[in-house]
């Protein structure tokens, strides 16, 4: 038994020749494909430290009509907590500069981009 005879357009349709060699669309970027001179200033997720000490100090102020002498102990506790948190932050910052495992902050990226700018012309 012989194969059935199909019209010519069926053969072109099955093989994909009906597309008439369409090319993929051209990609035209809206901006030049180079790095920017700086990145957006993203705020880091800061750890909230000394919140309880601050709230105790403010509650004391409210009870004593914002008199510093009556709340000297609470104010000193808050300042001690701030000093400890600042010291820990500095130590962590020193450790982060030594390890390159974490993502860079936006300020560090901007500093690097200023040191190594884009080459806009060829030598």
TrEMBL record:
Domain named CHCH is located at 50-83
Name the GO cellular-component terms.
mitochondrial ribosome; nucleoplasm
Please provide the record's keywords in A-Z order: Disulfide bond
User: What GO terms in the biological process aspect are recorded for it?
Assistant: mitochondrial translation
**Where does the UniProt annotation place the signal sequence?**
none
What does the record give under GO molecular function?
RNA binding
Q: Show the Pfam families listed in the entry.
A: CHCH
Protein's UniProt name: Coiled-coil-helix-coiled-coil-helix domain containing 1
Taxonomic source organism: Cairina moschata
Q: Taxonomic lineage of this organism?
A: Eukaryota, Metazoa, Chordata, Craniata, Vertebrata
């Amino acid at each position: 038994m012989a194969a059935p005879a199909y019209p010519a357009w069926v053969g072109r349709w099955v093989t994909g020749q009906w597309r008439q060699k369409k090319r993929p669309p051209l990609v035209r970027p809206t901006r030049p494909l180079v790095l920017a001179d700086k990145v957006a200033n993203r705020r880091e997720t800061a750890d909230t430290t000394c919140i309880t000490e601050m709230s105790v100090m403010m509650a004391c102020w409210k009870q004593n009509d914002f008199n510093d002498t009556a709340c000297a102990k609470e104010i000193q506790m808050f300042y001690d907590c701030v000093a400890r948190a600042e010291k820990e932050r500095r130590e962590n910052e020193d450790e982060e500069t030594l390890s390159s495992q974490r993502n860079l902050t936006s300020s560090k990226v901007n500093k690097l981009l200023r040191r190594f700018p884009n080459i806009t012309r060829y030598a």
